């Protein structure tokens, strides 16, 4: 899809299975299972979306999926197929790893940052995109390197620790390229970042896990995973009216890889997919 001077591609680097209760927090199962049907282990299947944004000089990759470094035990727990690697998905689109100039992660959980690195010599993890700078929120980097009891299960140091030399740390809001910004938001972790692409008066918004799918548009639908749920609520209250009023083109981290608009109907936020997907 063309978006101003950028070419934009939205795709998933495979799916993973997440405990349904973790996904929907205080929403009772009898309610959320109408939105997403759980399997016999109470898991719901969600895509791990990536966004590719390129112009004539830059190839920007937002999110890298789960990668292929996870042990068999974790592949089973999360229902991940490592063959659905972001590198293969890029190849399908004619893009080699060394063409990527900037990698952005909304945060460093394994389902967003696993493809940042691949195993190289003697199995040692190394950057998967050798020419890229990796743009990471400094606070997220610190928190990922020093996880606590409630966050530890989501971080694998092999996904990000080898990036120290390739990393470019940002604090808060930053313009990565003219028209392309990342904005820090507290909620899912202390410092996730979402993406805003602005061109010719139009805005494209790629969310992060504080609002990971269309099912998370209703204000109380907040993952139990979120470390700061009341901040998630505040961020949704601030962003959603802007998304509606300014007709943002919206995509989510864990939803079908489709663009759409957020509309307000009878006081509720709903997602309206674009009829013709690019
Ligand atoms: Zn996630």
Task: Report what the structure shows.
- The protein has 278 residues and is α/β, with parallel strands linked by helices.
- The protein contains seven helices and 16 strands.
- The strands form four sheets. Strands 1-2-3-4-5-8-9 form a seven-stranded mixed β-sheet. A five-stranded mixed β-sheet has the order 10-11-12-13-14. It has a two-stranded antiparallel ribbon with strand order 6-7.
- The longest helix has 17 residues, at 229-245.
- The relative contact order is 0.15.
- The protein binds zinc ion.
- Residues 109, 111-112, 209, 253-254 line the site of zinc ion (ZN).
> What does the average pLDDT come to?
96
The number of distinct structural domains comes to 1
Low-confidence stretches: none
H/E series: EEHHEEHHEHEEEHEEEEEHEEE
Give the biggest beta sheet.
Answer: 7 strands, mixed
CATH fourth-tier homologous superfamily:
Ribonuclease Z/Hydroxyacylglutathione hydrolase-like
The tally of beta strands, per DSSP, is 16
Question: Which CATH class?
Answer: Alpha Beta
Task: Please give the count of helices.
Answer: 7
> Cα distance, first to last residue?
5 Å
Estimate percent helicity: 10-25%
CATH topology: Metallo-beta-lactamase, Chain A
Strand content: 25-35%
């Amino acid at each position: 899809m063309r978006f101003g001077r950028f070419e934009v591609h939205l795709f998933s680097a495979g799916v993973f299975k997440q405990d349904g209760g973790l996904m929907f927090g205080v929403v009772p199962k009898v309610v959320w299972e109408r939105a997403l049907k759980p399997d016999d282990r109470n898991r719901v299947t969600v895509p791990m979306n990536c966004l590719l944004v390129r112009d004539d000089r830059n190839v920007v990759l937002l999110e890298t999926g789960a990668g292929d470094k996870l042990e068999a035990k974790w592949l089973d727990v999360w229902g991940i197929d490592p063959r659905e690697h972001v590198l293969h998905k890029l190849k399908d689109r004619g893009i080699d790893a060394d063409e990527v100039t900037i990698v952005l992660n909304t945060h460093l959980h394994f389902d967003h940052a696993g493809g940042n690195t691949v195993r190289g010599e003697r199995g040692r993890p190394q950057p998967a995109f050798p020419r890229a700078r990796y743009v990471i929120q400094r606070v997220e980097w610190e928190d990922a390197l020093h996880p606590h009891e409630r966050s530890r299960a989501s971080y694998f140091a092999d996904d990000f620790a080898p990036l120290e030399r390739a990393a470019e740390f940002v604090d808060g809001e930053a313009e990565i390229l003219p028209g392309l910004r990342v904005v820090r938001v507290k909620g899912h972790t202390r410092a996730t970042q979402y993406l805003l692409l602005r061109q010719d008066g139009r805005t494209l918004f790629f969310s992060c896990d504080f609002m990971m799918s269309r099912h998370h548009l209703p204000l109380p639908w907040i993952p139990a995973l979120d470390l700061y749920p009341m901040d998630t609520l505040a961020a949704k209250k601030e962003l959603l009216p802007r998304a509606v009023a300014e007709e943002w083109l919206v995509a989510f981290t864990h939803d079908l890889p489709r663009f759409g608009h957020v509309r307000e109907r009878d006081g509720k936020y709903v997602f309206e997919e674009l009829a013709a997907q690019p």
